[in-house]
Structure formats: C-alpha cells, structure tokens
Structure to design on (336 residues):
C-alpha cells in the first residue's frame, strides 16, 4: 500500500490540498466541521505528516527536547516530569524527545548540538546554576526554552521552579519546634541555584530560633545512599549525631534512618517527597510535597507559549512549598 498523502485526503474529502493542509494545521479560518471531517479521514487512512518535508517547508521540527539528567536522588523525577510534559503536549503537533545529559560532559554540549543542527523547536532542562551558560546561550539565539530552576541573571528568562527556600525554612522550623537544637541540612551540590535556596531557608529558620544549624559536609544530595548512610554513621561514631535532619528527598531520608537504625540511635527527620513512597516508608516521616508532574506540565505549557512568542516575564512559575504532612505517629523521631 502506498503512503497516504495530503492529496489522498483531499480527493476523498473533495477539498483542495491547501484546504486540507490548513485544516490539519487547525487553521481557525477553516470551519470547525471541516477540520473535524478532515482529521477523521486522515485518521481512517492512517495519514501521518512527512516531518522531513514539513521541516523543509516551515523550518520547524515539531519536536520538543527534554534534556534529562540521570540523577537518582529525587524519586520518580524523570517519570513525573515526562508525565507532565506529555500531558501539556497532548493534542498538539509537538513530539517529546528525551536527550540524556551525562555528568562527565559539559551540560551545554547537548544545547549547542540542538542549536547547531536545529533538532528541536524548544528545549526544557533542569539543574540550573546562578550564571547558567545554557540560559545565556539560548537567550542570545532567541531560542525558545523553559528551565526547571532559576538563575541570578539580570535578563528575565522562562522558568518553573519550586520554593526550596520555603521548604527548607519550614522543615527546619518544624524540627526546632519539636525540640531539635542541632538540626542538620543535607545539601544539594554546590553551584546549583537551588542549593543556595535550601541553605538560605535552613539557616534563616535556625537564626530566627537563635540556634546554630549545621550543613552536612562530605556528601550532598547527589551522593549514593550508601555514602550518605556512611557519613551519618561516622557522625554517630564520633558522638556528633545531629538531633534533626532536613532531607531534600526520600532517598537521603531513608539513608539517614538506616544509619541511625543500625546504630540503635534516634534523630528527627523532615523530608521532601516527590513520589508515592512517603505513605509506605516505615517509619513515617514528616514531609513536604513537591509536585514534579505539575512542574512538567507547567513547563510544557509555557514552552508552547515561548515558541508562540510570549515574553519571558509571563512564563515564570514558582511552585509554593505546601504545608507539612505530619507523620501519623508524630514523626518526631526515627526509632532505633
């Protein structure tokens, strides 16, 4: 069987090829019933557009590229983001393509590759830095993008971010209200913008309470669970175990608990949760939710608006940190 073309649809619909093309592009000047009939015929014939021909004709790829970091400290990060992005793109002409970002290569490389070879019409990426070269490059080229996270650049840019300052402040304040006097933050990797937000929120809450907070040294949120567990085990051996931990992810919370449980010690934990694991982790911990699927959907919607030419200042979203979900067994300590 030959591949159906616009001409095939036009012959069956008894319309001009140009009309069929405009109907499939959802041109509002074509009557809604005509657009619906053309789409129905196209589906019945199994028509799919020739993307190479479209690219030559329009200069567009109809591709959105999601640059995915293969980090594992946030449970369900990639799956949740992809679920949100595909929901935002559903029913549009855009296809989502996942491109990996490798830790041992410069983060700007895949962005340069996309720009150089025009592999997509828009880019979504994460793990921003205060002076992010990717953001600078894309703004210089006027190329549509949305990043998960903010920068400190003076020129506004599109982003969707989570209030990590608010999370860390609320988590530390919770520990202090429960009696902690030596709370500790497991930090994000130095150099990332959200690492600064976590640190500032945590230290602000400690300062307000007049106590000295500690930033855990030797490991970060990117460390393996074994490395975090080992670091906390060292603190226990040195009799320097903090009496509370702010954990920006389920993995780090479980690693802290494992170290304490193995040593027969106790400490308080407040964690950020991003998956359904919070309800089945034992013991229960106080937690604060970050909705990654919602973030992905917001980034997808705003990228479509960026492609359409909306200004960056209209494409900035800050997700608030919701109230703490208290553990049903008070969540004050991880039992021995």
């Amino acid at each position: 069987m030959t591949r159906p073309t616009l001409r095939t649809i036009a012959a069956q619909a008894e319309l001009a090829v140009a009309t069929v093309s405009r109907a499939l592009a959802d041109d509002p000047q074509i009557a809604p019933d005509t657009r619906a009939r053309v789409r129905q015929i196209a589906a019945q014939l199994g028509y799919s557009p020739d993307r190479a021909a479209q690219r030559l004709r329009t200069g567009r790829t109809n591709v959105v590229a999601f640059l995915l970091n293969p980090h594992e400290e946030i449970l369900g990060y990639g799956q949740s983001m992809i679920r949100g992005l595909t929901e935002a793109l559903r029913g549009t002409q855009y296809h989502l393509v996942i491109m990996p970002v490798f830790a041992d290569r410069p983060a700007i490389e895949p962005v340069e590759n996309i720009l150089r070879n025009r592999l997509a019409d828009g880019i979504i990426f994460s793990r921003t830095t205060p002076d992010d070269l990717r953001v600078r490059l894309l703004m210089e080229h006027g190329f549509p993008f949305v990043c998960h996270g903010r920068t400190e650049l003076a020129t506004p840019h599109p982003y969707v971010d989570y209030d990590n300052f608010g999370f860390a402040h609320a988590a530390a304040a919770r520990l202090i209200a429960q009696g902690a006097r030596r709370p500790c933050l497991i930090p994000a990797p130095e150099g990332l913008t959200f690492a600064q937000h976590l640190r500032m929120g945590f230290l602000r809450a400690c300062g307000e309470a007049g106590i000295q907070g500690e930033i855990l040294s030797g490991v970060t949120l990117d460390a393996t669970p074994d490395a975090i567990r080992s670091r906390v085990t060292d603190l226990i051996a040195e009799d320097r175990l903090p009496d509370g931990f702010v954990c920006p992810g389920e993995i780090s919370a479980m690693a802290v608990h494992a170290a304490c449980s193995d040593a027969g010690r106790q400490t308080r934990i407040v964690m950020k949760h991003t998956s359904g694991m919070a309800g089945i982790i034992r013991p229960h911990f106080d937690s604060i939710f970050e909705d990654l699927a919602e973030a992905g959907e917001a980034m997808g919607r705003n990228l479509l608006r960026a492609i359409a030419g909306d200004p960056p200042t209209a494409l900035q979203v800050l997700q608030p940190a919701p109230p703490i979900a208290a553990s049903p067994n008070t969540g004050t300590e991880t039992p021995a």
Observations:
- The chain is about 45% helix and 15% strand.
- Residues 193-209 form the longest helix (17 residues).
- The radius of gyration is 25 Å.
